[in-house]
Please model this.
Amino acid sequence: MLDIIERRLREKRTATEPLAELQQGGRTRAPMADARCDLCGACARQCPTSAIAATEDWSVDVGRCIFCGDCQPACPKGAITLSREVPPVSDRSSLILRRALPLPELRFHLRDEVQRVLGRSLNIREVDAGSCNGCEVEVSSLSNPVYDLERFGIRIVASPRHADALLVTGPVTRNMRPALMRTYRAVPEPRIVVAMGTCAISGCPFGGTYAAGAGVAEVLPVDIFIPGCPPHPRTVVLALLEALGRTQVT
Model:
């Protein structure tokens, strides 16, 4: 992050990005196969997290994808590109993308009470539940002069008792599970839970072992899934604004 700030100072590009610019580059781009794909399965065999299926049709589970790009050179037809834009969703199944089907119109399904109470401001308690710290770097970037999350009335707080939402990263390890549950119970209602990144969504690539679970939804009700490994700060900002119905903020 310091390298980014230094480069922006050198290039005299330290101005805060307006919402319109955030919206242009704020979507996670997932792999997608085009019409040249013959379902040979080479990409599925190469995928380190088994996110790709190539049986009756080509599909990818963005909640398991770590965006490594290994599927692209593995395809003998050159049919795979990181081209499908994926927004944050409130339904885990919406992160399974199929080649033959367009991305559906996705809407958040937050409770009316949440929209009413939290629509104008949001306090977030971030919990690292065993991540590699990639997501934490992006969370730190949210408060820098470029993204400036607080201009939207959204800020990160130290105490869960002052929070409206939990932003959880990591697959929820065995040691962090009790701490996460205590933190969740300390956040007053109405509260929302945000699973940020592949590990928090599905546990990949660290989940499913004796020491780590299969994501946040295994232990808590998740309201927002933000795909990415890690998600870009723009993606996180847009996810929070869209969930609160504030995409027209300037």
